[in-house]
Design goal:
With 349 residues, the protein is mostly helical. The protein has 15 helices and 6 strands. A hairpin with a 2-residue loop joins strand 1 and strand 2.
């Protein structure tokens, strides 16, 4: 049995007759930092630094259990959509419409006719409607992109505008209050002292990890993002897979709409406003390449937690949202620069 080899890279050195290639071993620490474990370690360090700043600047209140649950609760809605967005970006796509689809799904689920039906049957009718609207909008995006050959940016931008406008028409620019107390009670319940919204985020993250790392669907997603044409030649139905990827973000948007309804007890076209920016930022900071082919659900979870914790630190210290926006912008730029740096690294995985 042969011994395992150490990854090497070639460089040239001058000789009397010209130049000659010399093979040198890539240091183990560099291979570690260039791989998924190293990138996730960097996210853990960044999160710990933010936590330390919060603990120092707002001692007592920041580190309390109640505040930790607040951070997780705020991260949950963004996190659910970010998990699905990870798949789309890994495949080389983008979905700008998720925030508007959240607003549309929340309005559709709280229309008077739907609430009357839920009152006569069960509050789960509202949940089903929100999910169906989300999946429907996502599949429309997927069909236009995959079979209409429309660039993802333009197709989802059109859905962003259209879904928000349709939500305003359906709601008549009003806030639709959730009348079913059973739905409100369940969505504000807790299990083992932890809010149901946090449990939903945890379950979605776990399912997303399994889907990406342990299924054919996940492997096909990475293959399409790495080389779309090679994936097609390998027998993957790229168009159909792309359609289902956008259906996945639509499903996540429907779940997020339900979470918004539970948290605010109202449906409105303003739900999810600018949510797509927070989602994409969290995915990018989490290490998913915007060009596709690489990304992890674990990294996305850390990306979401980083932004949620940062926002809480600003609130605890009574700093304006303007400073928070600047800080987020800086973090995103640094994350993209690091992506480019590691993407060029000879020892990358």
């Amino acid at each position: 049995m042969s011994e395992p080899t150490t990854p090497t890279r070639a460089r040239t050195v001058p000789t009397e007759t010209g130049t000659a290639p010399v093979t040198t071993a890539t240091p183990a620490w560099r291979r570690l930092l260039s791989g998924p474990a190293g990138r996730n370690l960097g996210l853990v360090v960044a999160l710990l630094l933010i936590v330390i700043v919060g603990a120092v600047t707002a001692p007592g209140s920041f580190t309390s259990l109640d505040n930790v649950l607040v951070i997780l609760r705020l991260a949950s809605t963004t996190g659910v959509v970010a998990i699905a967005m990870t798949f789309v970006i890994i495949a080389g796509g983008i979905d700008l419409s998720v925030g508007s689809v959240v607003g549309l799904a929340s309005v559709a689920a709280t229309l008077a006719a739907v609430q009357d039906l839920a009152d006569s049957l069960h509050w789960s009718v509202m949940v089903v409607i929100a999910l169906l609207v989300g999946v429907g909008a996502g599949l429309i995006n997927g069909l236009v992109i995959a079979y209409g050959n429309v660039v993802a940016f333009m197709a989802t931008l059109a859905m962003l505008v259209g879904a928000r406008g349709l939500a305003e028409i359906l709601a008549d620019r009003r806030t639709l209050v959730v009348e079913d107390r059973g739905f409100v009670t369940v969505m504000n319940a807790d299990f083992l002292g932890i809010d149901i919204l946090i449990w939903i985020f945890a379950i979605v993250a776990a399912l997303g990890w399994v889907l990406l790392n342990r299924t054919t669907f996940g492997r096909r997603t990475v293959a399409i993002g790495g080389n779309r044409e090679a994936a097609r030649l390998a027998g993957i139905n790229v168009r159909r897979h792309t359609m289902w990827l956008y259906g996945l973000t639509g499903l996540a948007s429907g779940i997020a709409a339900i979470m918004f309804l539970g948290r605010t007890t109202a449906g409105t076209s303003t739900h999810g406003l600018l949510l797509e920016l927070d989602v994409i930022a969290a995915v990018v900071v989490g290490g998913t390449l915007l060009v596709g082919g690489r990304g992890t659900v674990t990294g996305t979870v850390f990306g979401v937690l980083i932004f949620s914790t940062l926002s809480n630190v600003f609130v605890q210290n009574n700093l304006s949202s303007s400073f928070q926006a600047v800080a987020k912008g800086v973090i995103i730029v640094v994350a993209v620069l690091l992506q480019q740096r590691f993407a060029r690294s000879p020892g990358r995985n």
